[in-house]
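Two proteins were folded this term; both appear here.
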Amino acid sequence: MKNDFGSPDVLSRREAALLLGICLTTLDHLDIPRTKIGRRVMYRRDVINKWIVEHTETSRKEKI
């Protein structure tokens, strides 16, 4: 399925890693929710974006 911008809403492991700019091994060690379809592991783009927001750290200066 594609969204209004023509990009897929569901990503493969490889596409998710590419989106995040990390290797597959690093992706496998993160706690990003994923779905298994048979042997395939898929990631929803909206879930990845939500995970990024939830795991964004602010600098010490901003916390004070």
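Next, the second protein.
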Amino acid sequence: MSHMMIRRTSTRSTYQGQQDEETLRQFNIPLTVNDITQSSTEEYNRQLARLTYLTPEQVNIIKDIRRRGKNKVIRFIMIE
């Protein structure tokens, strides 16, 4: 018998996503959380290469958001 698991987005992850979107706006980073976390590695690297004017702080913010997003995916996979 197949078992289907439905996972709801937690309030905590929704709040973190909202904070990340706000941080992107505050630091004038022209990407969305979805752009950063859902793109392939190739596309992500292309986006960073295209945005050559970003400061090291802006790049670190993008990398932190990407890392958290990828960790969230891994946690979800491990639960299944």
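The chain has four helices and no strands. The CA atoms of residues 18 and 33 lie 9 Å apart. These notes refer to the second protein only.
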